[in-house]
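Researcher: Structure prediction, please.
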Amino acid sequence: ISLHAQCLQCLQSPHMDLCHVPATREKGWYLALMAPNVKGPNYAWLDPSRLYCHPQGMQDCVADLLQPFQGDAIDMVAGIDAMGFILGAAAAATLQKGFLAIRKAGHLCVQTVAQPYSDYSGREKVMEVRTDAISPGLRILLVDQWVETGGTMRAAIELVERLGGVVAVLRPLVCAPTGVAAICMENSEGGKWIQERYKCSHCVPPHLQPRFDQHQ
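Model: Predicted structure follows.
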């Protein structure tokens, strides 16, 4: 059964089977576990949290995200508030590295640096990170659940770089082998801006990318 057929079959089911694992686990098979939006345009179009409930799906998702960075020197993983905490912490545990939470403003009781941004829905927000966790030259893998318009990830990149951390560019003048990872990176203007400049990893197979870009 094709990945597309799996997606249709799973999305039409109100329940998920946490025991079933396909005989052939091609990259992205676990995308079929995600649940569609049933609450309207004020919400994201898919909910990946159902994927996280599946033990093998979660493991394979993290493995696929980290595969492009095999052999790269990663000093720390940073996850973006809030769903990026799940994948980021899982990636950090797999790599045996520390994890840094990049928070929405107003939650940290220590000295921080802040960055305004617009999220996928166009809402104006501010994110912040503690100033004592990133030292100059620290190589950071930035992780979020989804990159839609790119505004949230660009703000996180700005925070890391302002503190002297390194997020890998595609053609670096010096070795900087860390970057950006998300389940999906849409080919929006902001998504393309990130992919053109930074080393990126995501889980969507090329033949499904147009469907994700069109939120189908």
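Model: Confidence is low (pLDDT under 50) at residues 171-177.
Researcher: Thanks, that helps.
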